[in-house]
Structures are given as C-alpha cells and as structure tokens.
From TrEMBL:
Main location: periplasm
GO biological process, one term: transmembrane transport
Alphabetical list of CDD domains matching this protein: PBP2_TRAP_BpDctp6_7
Stated name of the protein: C4-dicarboxylate ABC transporter substrate-binding protein
Keywords: Periplasm, Signal
InterPro entries per UniProt: DctP_fam (IPR018389), TRAP_DctP_sf (IPR038404)
UniProt keyword Signal present: yes
Amino acid sequence: MLMASGYPEDNFMTVNIRMFLDEITETAEIAIDLKPNGALIPLNSIKGAVQKGQVQLGEVRLGVHANEEPMLDLAGVPFVAPDYPTVWLLKDMQKDYVSDWFDSQGLVLLYQAPWPGAGFYTKGPMDSLEAIQGKRLRIPNTPIQSMGNLMGYNAVLLPFAEVPQAFSTGLIDAMFTSPQTGIDIQAWDHTDHFTYVGASLATNAVFMNRRAFDALTPDQQTTVRTAAARAELRGWEMSAAATEAQIVTLREQGMTIGTLPEDIAAKLDEIAPQLVQDWLKIASPEAAEVYQRYQALR
C-alpha cells in the first residue's frame, strides 16, 4: 500500500505517522510505503488521490476541504478552540459528523491530530495595530483570512509549499501560522519576529480508501483502528510538547519572540464573535447544533 502526506520527514505529524504505520506493519503484516512532503502527491490533491485509489492512505489538514464541508474548519476558526483541552473536546463532539462526511466520500477517518497554536511572523516587532495596516499577511484558511482583514492586514490565502517564494517575491510581508510550519519553511530567512497568539489549533486527519479498508481482514481492521487510536492520543501529546521546544528553536535561529500588544489583543477579542457568526452562516443546521453542544460543555 501507499500513503501520501504533505509535510517534511522531521515534522512531528510525519513522525507520528511513521510510528502509526510501523505498528500496523509489526502487528498486522501490512506494508505501507509513506511518501511525505508532497513527494508523490501535492497536499491539496491527497484526498482526491485516496478517493481514486491512486494511494490507499492520506493525510490532510481538514480545513483544506472546508469549501466542501464547513465543519472541517471549525477548529480553525480563531478562538473557538484555542488550547488543547478545548480542541480535544471539539474533536470528540465533531467525531460522528466528520466520520460520516468521510464515509460519504468513500473514505475511512482513522485519526486526527492538532497543530500547535499559531502566531505572527513579521519583519520587525508587532508594536501596534496601526503598524500592521495594509501589510500583506499569509494565512492558512478562510476564517483566519477574515481575522487578518478585520485587523487591517491584506490577508492572502496561500498553500504551505508556496510561502517561501511568496516572501522572496514580495507577495507577502508576514504570516500567521504555527511554530512547526515556521521551522519547516525556515521562517528566519524571511522574518525576524514571532509573536505567539494561540487562537486556533487546526487539525490534520489521517484516512484510508474505503475499498482498501474493507479488503482487510477483520483482525487487520481492528489492528488499524487500535493503532489509529494510539496515534491520535500520541499526536495530541506530541503537538503539545512541540510548541515550547519549537519556540526555543525559533529563538535559537535568531528570531525575537514578542508579546502581543494590548491594542492588537483587544482587537482580536472584539472580532472573535464575528468570526464564529461568519462560520455559522455557512454551516449546516446539524453542524451548528454540534457547535452549540460543544459551547455548552466548554
């Protein structure tokens, strides 16, 4: 079997996948060849490739497919689930809904894992709200694009792989993303300040072609599910452990770790409810109900 992912070999998401696949190989004798870092299939095309059976397993950031199902990007809406306990709760509340959506696509959801919270990578310090007006900010999803625009940035939605070139050509001046992504693209080559916010812990999903899963024996299916459950918990633990260490790495590479100015923090508090309302406008009634149940338990 083949699996495609879009992130580098030393990214904790990829490390976790390797451990997941090793467990499957050892206990179920299923050989799965992982092709990371978009080497076989670009990140945004992985879901389609798994649906078609070009590869049997894949990994995507769920928000990439929010245009198909807004629920997939609820964790990416700033301040809906800004830390690990809340994003774990949200994952559990969404699980049946998201699993059913994958099933409707001919896919089997195996596990989810969150990215660390995000921050601003800038050229120079984030001194004030006034200083960022009109700057071009790379963002990973539509809700954060709305956040950036409401702050006064000109927010640009760009895939991960295009970020270094966008900095080099002047298409963007700054970006909002996790410490992990900053390390993956060597953000210190393009920016010199990192200001951690948290805001959202966008989630990745690992999934399998339904026909390929159904072709496994019952014992093999159980092994895959058991390994997936362990990978999910491990992914949360690895993400949480990575955040502090990655910020240290950014500092060691010469970046200054900044503090969010009061006026920017106040602006983020002001616009957070609007971002949720924007999501609710496009969500299905069933998805909105999941969100309301989640809010009741926070």
